Amino acid sequence: MFEQEIATFKRLGVRHLLVQALNFASVICTALMLWKGLAVFLNTESPVVVVLSGSMEPGFYRGDLLFLSLPRDRQLKVGEIPVFNVPEGKIPIVHRLMENHDEPAKDESSNSLPTRWMLTKGDNNFENDVALYNGLKYLQRSNLIGKVNGYAPHVGYVTIVMNDYPKLKYALLATLGLTILLHRE
Fold first, then answer.
1. Which among 95, 123, 142, 154 is annotated as catalytic?
2. Per residue of the chain (185 residues), what is the pLDDT tens digit?
3. Is residue 127 domain-resident?
4. Considering the entire predicted model, what is its pTM?
5. Same structural domain for residues 11 and 95?
6. What is the Cα gyration radius of the chain?
7. Taking a C-beta distance cutoff of 8 angstroms, is the pair 55, 125 a contact?
8. Where are the transmembrane segments (predicted)?
9. Which partner from 26, 30, 74, 116 sits 20 to 30 angstroms from 133, CA to CA?
């Protein structure tokens, strides 16, 4: 099945394989630097997330790719859509902000924002998200990952398929790796 690829692999030589591996590492490092640079510029740990459930339909569907930022100098308003993590939560949650409760800043001389307590709810859910908060009554800014600024419909569905079928993910990664190593420039 792979006889021709193995023969090609043997003909390439160590130097060519090393160059290909370095090119691949360069691409990976560039992608990571761009990701981290975007995260710093947008003030969020994750500038892009994929919607994993139908709780925000019809606004966002499963597989939509969301673009995030976290404003440094202003609080979120009711109606905006934050992405947040809860304590001991592994998956970010995308739900609409339904209520805000402000507690004035303790130090009036500083320019710090007041403490804001937030309550969210999925557009397609009947109840608010208190049950999702793992013992919290409200969210705080420290729970926020970002605010949704835009989206690309269904682009992130590849991520969902890869997570649902791990063997497919590993097969595609192996194929990609072999293609990069065996490709002649």
1. 95
2. 667 767 776 777 777 778 877 888 898 899 999 999 998 998 888 899 999 988 999 999 999 999 999 888 788 889 999 999 888 878 899 999 998 887 766 666 556 667 888 899 999 999 988 888 888 888 888 888 999 999 999 999 888 888 888 898 888 888 887 777 666 55
3. yes
4. 0.73
5. no
6. 22
7. yes
8. 21-42
9. 74
- What is the Cα–Cα distance from 120 to 98, expressed in whole angstroms? 5
Q: How many CB atoms lie within 10 A of CB 144?
A: 22
| Catalytic (active site) residue 73 | no
Q: Are residues 58 and 34 in the same domain?
A: no
Determine the Cα–Cα distance for residues 107 and 86; give it in Å rounded to an integer: 27
| Active-site option among 129, 142, 164, 183 | 129
- Determine whether 64 is an active site residue: no
